[in-house]
């Protein structure tokens, strides 16, 4: 079940460094791509930092629309995650090719993907993009899978298919792993 998260807590959905999937739409076209270089940047207003290569089709759509969806995929769609990172959306509809199920976003035009554990809807803050391919974006809506995120923290349970992934290279990932706690100074 998707549940809204207060915007000032949006960083908690990305702070464990997972691979992400970017969705974009403009002018009747939409695209999807994998992205490993996304991170939380600020709390209020919530911002994220994302790298999108100038040659990417998604970049064209984001440049034109000024917005994008940022999703944290589950292990169960690892093959699709690699696939959308290797195939160009200029050549074909990646949503159809990889049989990706979508739903409408709350505040942006880009479609959002099912089979994820977190979703952030983002609007680009102009100026950092051209020279370094960096996108700073404000999070305008965020939500999570209530089975995997509760009490303001992740709980992936025992099913590895429900965990998030960390990309290494050449189609290899690490799964989010064992949870443990280290006492803090206050404890």
A few lines on this structure:
The protein is mainly beta.
Description:
The chain has 187 residues and is mainly β. The chain has a single domain, classed as Electron Transport, Fmn-binding Protein, Chain A (Pnp Oxidase, Chain A), CATH 2.30.110.10. 14% of the residues lie in helices and 40% in strands. It contains four helices and 14 strands. β4 and β5 form a beta hairpin.
Report the CATH architecture. Answer: Roll
Query: Count the helices. How many?
Result: 4
C-alpha geometry: globular
Q: What is the radius of gyration?
A: 16 Å
DSSP helix fraction: 10-25%
Name of the CATH class: Mainly Beta
- What is the structural class? mainly beta
Major sheet attributes? 8 strands, antiparallel
Features:
187 residues; mainly beta; Pnp Oxidase, Chain A; FMN binding; Flavin reductase family protein
Secondary structure: elements and pairs:
Layout: E1 2-4, E2 20-26, E3 29-35, E4 38-43, E5 46-51, H1 57-65, E6 67-73, H2 78-86, H3 94-97, E7 102-103, E8 112-113, E9 116-125, H4 129-132, E10 134-145, E11 149-150, E12 153-154, E13 165-169, E14 172-175
Antiparallel strand pairs: 1-10, 2-3, 2-6, 4-5, 5-10, 6-9, 7-8, 9-10, 11-12, 13-14
């Amino acid at each position: 079940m998707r549940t809204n998260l207060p915007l000032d807590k949006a960083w908690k959905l990305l702070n464990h460094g997972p691979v992400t999937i970017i969705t974009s739409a403009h002018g009747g076209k939409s695209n999807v791509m994998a992205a490993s270089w996304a991170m939380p940047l600020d709390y209020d207003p919530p911002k994220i930092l994302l790298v999108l290569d100038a040659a990417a089709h998604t970049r064209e759509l984001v440049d034109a629309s000024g917005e994008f969806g940022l999703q944290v995929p589950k292990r169960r769609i690892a093959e699709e995650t690699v696939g959308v990172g290797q195939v160009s959306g200029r050549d074909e509809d990646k949503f159809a090719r990889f049989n990706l199920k979508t739903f409408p976003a709350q505040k942006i035009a880009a479609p959002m993907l099912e089979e994820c554990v977190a979703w952030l809807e983002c609007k680009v803050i102009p100026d950092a993009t051209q020279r370094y391919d960096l996108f700073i974006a404000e999070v305008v809506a965020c939500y999570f899978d209530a089975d995997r995120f509760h009490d303001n923290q992740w709980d992936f349970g025992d099913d590895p298919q429900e965990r998030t992934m960390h990309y290494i290279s050449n189609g290899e990932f690490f799964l989010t792993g064992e949870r443990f706690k280290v006492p803090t100074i206050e404890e």
